[in-house]
Amino acid sequence: MRRFALAASLLVLVALSWGCGGGAARPAPVLVPPQIDLHPHETIGVIRFDSAAKGELGPMATRRFTEAARRDQGLVKIVELGTAAEVLRSVGRTSLDPEAVKAIGAKHGLKSLIVGDLVVSNVKPNVSVDALFRSGSVTATVDATLNVQLYETETGAALWNRSGRSSQSVGHVSVWGGKNFAFDAGNPDEAYGGLVDELVSQVSRPFQASWARR
Hints:
Elements: H1 2-22, E1 29-32, E2 44-47, E3 54-55, H2 57-70, E4 78-82, H3 84-90, H4 98-108, E5 112-125, E6 136-152, E7 158-176, E8 180-183, H5 188-204, E9 210-213
Parallel strand pairs: 2-4, 2-5, 3-8
Antiparallel strand pairs: 1-9, 5-6, 6-7, 7-8
Helix pairs in contact: 2-5
């Protein structure tokens, strides 16, 4: 019994010595500020992210990117402008070239402009659908890429861009004609919210704070 007590005491002493300087102490984590501070770029306009896929993918990605980008930035002035077609039409332009960026900035009093597009490809239904005679709402594996750019409206120059990629299974995909598809879920968050969140997480990191040991 005494031997057990002595051994236990020795183990406690060794553990205490390690914790009190016997081993190298790990540095405490510190909060690292975002790589990109959005305040020098405000007021910031956001054009609704474009997506060729029918459904709520584009609007959802726009909303969630905006939320993620400003999460650790405090109060940031952001103006939602609508679709690219609407915004370009309002300044009499047909494409988003440098002159269009400058015109949009002047019209809306913006210092910067954020645009993005969400590309969906390789849609592979997880059930067999007779493309010639039937259509159906199914789950499908898709490849998706989210591209986002930040422009300076004074010059029309691109200041920053980043892409995110993911391949996931999503729900409520309508497929017809063999190659046509639409994301028509009654509950978009449940159907493909995970896909959008993954893409947004990849793209919005430069605007968010992080923890690191130094």
